[in-house]
UniProtKB/TrEMBL annotation:
Keyword entries, A-Z: Membrane, Transmembrane, Transmembrane helix, Transport
Subcellular location per the Swiss-Prot or TrEMBL entry: Membrane
Bilayer-crossing regions: 40-61, 67-90, 116-142, 154-174, 181-198, 218-240, 252-273, 301-329, 341-363, 369-390, 410-433, 463-487
Family affiliation: Belongs to the purine-cytosine permease (2.A.39) family.
Name listed for the protein in its UniProt record: Cytosine permease
Major location (coarse): membrane
UniProt entry tagged with the keyword Cell wall biogenesis/degradation: no
Membrane-related topology note: Multi-pass membrane protein
Native species: Aeromicrobium duanguangcaii
């Protein structure tokens, strides 16, 4: 970690305790000692959660067969984490968090627009993980015959929120150690879960699931990309900023992809087999994914399963809240990094309280939230990856903090590209729960003019196979990438010639 020698004994005590005091500033060269293989641990630990098995059920809900779902899982998850790896290359080139490095294509001030989207989606993800951990605790307690009411949920939520905030406040170095331990614990628990439930697999029932349409396959592919790699892509460089400057970009992509994709691919493939064999599990998975998966376990394994599952969810939330704190600082909030993580922890706790104790369901609003913010994040990712591809030199680190530097205050063409790609994208995605989340039914406005689908205002439903393909995410990414690659080439060359 980078700590300025200001003579403060309090700051030195914090440093000795292992707490990272570095915020959005550039990491000193002496502190950049991480190896590419170190990237495996945080990404694997954050994605080895048994929750991944639930996505097997979600894929089959899309109306596709087991082999189509399996193909979508392998390709979609892998491609999405390759994209994360490409963003992570920027971390070793600039030694700064993702949203600071994003100032290069958008400008030092202009970056605040995608920064706001990034902060909101990070807050949403970490809150979602905390909610699932709380609900899973209550369900497992019920299966054990213990109390599973309000008191249990309050205690579970308090402990879970405390773990998430404490780890994220501690920072990078402690998180890396924490994640390496969790990798072994949650990985072992997942293997035991699969071994104990393997007898639930019914090959005949699985193969009897009919094939779905091409549109359904595309929709499932987009869902997988958005839920896995694209859900992390806006923070991908936060973990590579401690890499040595001379580290191979290819090795960063490799370890990032391997760590992120390995566990989800295995888990989703098993989830497809389990959900295809046991359709009765699917309704429960919709509202309490991990708790429902626990109902088919023998009683003796419920407590180890609960501990491993909750810690895996906490692991993912820790990555999210750590990075959302950095994003908050990048927006101009003048507080220390640990304080920023604490602020986000308070928001996480309030969101968890609302969903667990007030809202009737969280799947519908969360899925709607995911696809809505997935569009501008996909557009941003396309712009950022194209910008990284265009650059041949490391970032001018000082200019990332200077509106008068080579990256400028606002790059209006990049802002226009982000807005334009998002407008197109929102017009080609739909709210999958139009009756439950009516406030989001404004999406899909390009589908009818393009004769891709039809909106029935009376029944509040979309009619047409392309409606749920969510083409908007792919188009937003493609527009951001292609326009930047063509239109920003000259700007990047001028910057690097200075």
């Amino acid at each position: 970690m980078t700590v300025q020698n200001d003579g403060s004994s309090g700051l030195e005590a914090v440093r000795r305790a292992g707490i990272e005091t570095t915020g959005i500033e550039i990491i000193d060269e002496s502190e950049r000692t991480a190896k590419p293989s170190d990237l495996f641990w945080p990404w694997f630990a954050a994605n080895v959660s048994v929750f991944g098995i639930s996505y097997g059920s979600y894929l089959l809900w899309a109306g596709i067969s087991w082999w189509q779902a399996s193909l979508v899982a392998v390709v979609g998850i892998t491609v999405s984490f390759v994209a994360c790896g490409l963003i992570a290359i920027a971390g070793k080139r600039g030694s700064a968090p993702t949203m600071i490095l994003s100032r290069a294509p958008f400008g030092v001030v202009g970056q605040k627009l995608p920064g706001v989207f990034s902060w909101i989606i990070s807050i949403g993800w970490e809150t979602f993980l905390a909610i699932m951990a709380t609900l899973a605790t209550a369900t497992v307690f019920r299966e054990l015959g213990w109390s599973s009411g309000t008191t249990t949920k309050i205690l579970a939520m308090t402990v879970i929120a405390a773990l998430i905030v404490a780890a994220s406040v501690a920072g990078y170095h402690i998180i890396i150690r924490f994640q390496s331990i969790l990798t072994w614990l949650t990985g072992l628990a997942t293997i035991v879960y699969i071994a104990l439930t393997l007898d639930q697999i019914d090959i005949d029932a699985l193969t009897a699931v009919p094939n779905g349409s091409m549109q359904a396959v595309v929709g499932a592919f987009v869902m997988v990309m958005t839920a896995f790699g694209f859900g992390w892509i806006n923070i991908a460089a936060d973990w590579s900023r401690y890499q040595r400057r001379g580290t191979s970009g290819g090795r960063i992509v490799l370890w990032n992809t391997l760590g992120g994709a390995l566990a989800p691919v295995v888990l989703v493939l098993y989830g497809i087999m389990l959900a295809g064999s046991r359709p009765d599990l699917q309704d429960g998975i919709a509202n309490d994914p991990i708790g429902t998966l626990a109902t088919i376990l023998p009683t003796w394994f419920l407590v180890p399963f609960l501990i491993a599952s909750v810690l895996a969810l906490v692991s993912g939330a820790v990555l999210g809240i750590y990075s959302s704190g950095l994003t908050l600082l990048s927006l101009g909030v003048k507080i220390p990094r640990p304080a920023a993580a604490f602020v986000d922890g308070v928001i996480l706790t309030l969101g968890t309280i609302y969903v667990v104790f007030i809202a009737e369901t969280f799947l519908a609003p969360f899925q709607s939230f995911l696809i809505t913010l997935g569009v501008p994040i996909a557009a941003w990712a396309g712009i950022m990856i194209a910008d990284i591809a265009l650059r041949r030199r490391d970032y001018d680190e000082a200019a990332l903090f200077d509106p008068n530097g080579r990256y400028g205050a606002v790059n209006w063409p990049a802002i226009a590209t982000l807005i334009g790609a998002s407008v197109v994208g929102w017009g080609l995605v739909v709210n999958a729960f139009p009756a439950d989340v009516t406030w989001n039914n404004w999406q899909g406005y390009l589908l009818e003019p393009l004769n891709l689908a039809e909106w029935n205002a009376t029944k509040l439903e979309w009619i047409g196979a392309w409606a749920f393909a969510n083409l908007g995410v792919l188009f937003a990414f493609a527009i951001g990438f292609v326009v930047t690659l063509i239109a920003q080439r000259g700007r990047v060359r001028r910057q690097e010639s200075v």
